[in-house]
Specification:
Number of strands of chain A: 0
Structural class of chain A: mainly alpha
Structural class of chain B: alpha/beta
CATH architecture of the largest domain in chain B: 3-Layer(aba) Sandwich
CATH superfamily of the largest domain in chain B: Cobalamin-binding domain
Distance between the termini of chain B: 35 Å
Radius of gyration of chain A: 15 Å
Number of helices of chain B: 10
Order of helices and strands of chain A: HHHHHH
Strand content of chain A: under 5%
Number of domains of chain B: 2
CATH superfamily of chain A: Phycocyanins
Oligomer: heterodimer
CATH topology of the largest domain in chain B: Rossmann fold
Distance between the termini of chain A: 50 Å
Strand order of the largest sheet of chain B: 2-1-3-4
Number of domains of chain A: 1
Shape of chain A: globular
Strand content of chain B: 5-15%
Largest interface: A-B, 18 and 15 residues
Helix content of chain A: over 70%
Amino acid sequence: MAAKPLTEAASEALLASKEELARSITTELYQEMPELLEKYGERGRVRCHEDMLYNLEHLAPAVALDEPVLFARYVEWLRDMLAARGIPAGEVRRSLEITRDRVRTRFPADQAKLIAAVLEAGLNALGPAN
Amino acid sequence: MTADEALDSYLAAVLAGSRRDAMSVIDRARAAGLDLRTLYLEVFQPALREIGQLWQENRVTVADEHLATAITQSAMLRLYGSLELPGAVGRTLIAACVETERHEIGLRMLCDILELEGWNTLFLGATVPTESLARMVAERKPAAVALSVSLPPHLPRARTMIQAIREATPENPPVILLGGRPFLEQPELAYALGADLTARDAAEGAALLRKRLS
């Protein structure tokens, strides 16, 4: 029986733990930036969790299909959509960086490397950090 | 009434949430001689894309966008009811949407345009189980299958569906057309997923199928 390709395995692992990952990323983001609670309220925290889930649901197919550009394009769309709603790119940047850190500690090295590379494509698409 | 005027009026009616006004615009456009293809491609399609863009810019809400889609689906159904279809040309298309209903419209447009050219189209809508789709394709042997994906999370499923269709049709395989938003900027992605053809909209899809199968 042929082994499952790494891209598929990594993508499936990501999706299987997306709830837990989204929760952990949100917690860390809010710990790092407590002003978010004041700015967006408790409702904002719930929205953040949903947004992190959405990120992961877009990260997974880009990993599965080995198409970092897919995720980069999603991040550009996200940045513009959030900017129109008063949410700065810096927050998107931090959430993706925290995601990358989480992925590195949580997944086997070969899967983590693959996923991190796609996240990097997304971070590059955000443009230079201000 | 030109197509542009129809588009402006239709968009205004839809943004105001008035199904009645929207239908009235379409009736007037028809009376002015605009045909179904023109209404689909130069009114409905640009109107929905504009509304998507407005949502992106936070100028309309998700509810507005749902409403616009629902009104447009009603208008398309109504138009289809008034069509005089030509004689059958003996070609069949099976069309399936890989995800949710709201993203079916492009596929519906393709089906209606092909029906105007004498095709028989089997529109299966959304969330068809892969095995069931593959079995139907194997049994009915359509000349073509059209699949639609709007959002990246559903791309892997499109690949699985295409693989299943190919496995089910070792002889006389159908031409597989794959369309949707992810392919607008990355058409090569459609081929990577196993499709034969990709198109930017229903008109291009119909033209490619016509060319491929002639």
